[in-house]
Amino acid sequence: MRAIRFLVPGTTGRFRCGGLLVELQTARLVARVAPVEVVTYRQREPEHPFLDDLLRAEPLSEACTSGATLWIVSWGFDVPMLLRRLRGRATAYHAHSSGYGFALPPGVPVLAVSRNTLGYWGDRAPRNPLFLVPNALEPQWLERGARPGTAVQAQQQGPRPIDVLIQQRKTSAYVLDQLVPALRQRGLRVEVQSGWVDDLVDLFNSATVYVYDSADYWRGRGVSEGFGLPPVEALACGCVVFSSLNHALADSLDPGLLAHQIGCGMLEADVERIAAAVADPAAWQASPDSLAALLNQLQEPVLLERWQRAVAEIDHHWQLWLVERAQLLMALPPWRLRCRQMKAALRRRLRL
Fold this sequence. Notes:
There is one protein chain. The protein is α/β, with parallel strands linked by helices. The chain has helices at 18-30, 51-57, 60-63, 79-85, 115-124, 139-144, 151-155, 173-185, 200-205, 215-221, 229-236, 249-252, 267-279, 288-297, 300-323, 334-351, and strands at 4-8, 36-40, 70-73, 91-95, 110-112, 130-132, 162-167, 190-193, 207-212, 240-243, 260-261. Strands 2-1-3-4-5-6 form a six-stranded parallel sheet, sandwiched between helices. Helix 8 (173-185) packs across helix 13 (267-279). The N and C termini lie far apart (58 Å). The mean pLDDT is 93.
């Protein structure tokens, strides 16, 4: 299998975020089946090679040979620039969020982390190779999460110390400014987590209800929630989850079976439902069968199989295109499709 290079702007400082951690986890996962390098392109780091250096050292002629390195880009706003710099080399786009507005060049494969993102590129790039490779849950969530039926949950004694847990980043003003005060006035113990936490599993295991409302955050930025791991991590820890259902969150959070909608019509309705879930979590927790099916799909061995199949197909795709010079299929632009449809409609009218 080809060597694979995951491109990230940097791995420290201002580049540390959930998307980076997921990309690094994916690189570690794929390293089990192929040689993998993490390559930075904005910030030089002694632990990782730098894109400029690699491009200078590896002529484009070598990139067109069988088995040449596969480059994987993922950083939304940087994708067009990176694809231009890597033109003529085997590349793929690991697509988290959607909605950045750029068009993909013909033939560049898309590795979508959610069905929401897959559908977006299925519409905008229908002739590009498309794959679904959801983000894997780190094993610690499955091994240490105190969900019902686990040994960890059986060891818990008494009610959890946090009634309602909210992570400040990406949370809507509605939750922070209206819901939190109303819940506290109701007498609930609400924790709004805002800084670095050494052990997130332990924090989630300490909460009865987890609230995640990212709809306003992403609507304001014009891009989508790429996958939405925090609610799934909370489910793995036995929390009752109240969440928005925007974008990729709708992939996994089946309302009423796995989670409950937040911002459901009225503030009073949210307060009543959350208070009821704190008082009787068992009546509000995720369906055991539905939760087991979701978590099984997100285990690293399952996702590793998906990556193996996807990379094998991408390897064959680039072999046909770069080495054997097969002709690419091209998607027609929307204006040409509309013209064709208008002409067809006019011909039907004239026949009548």
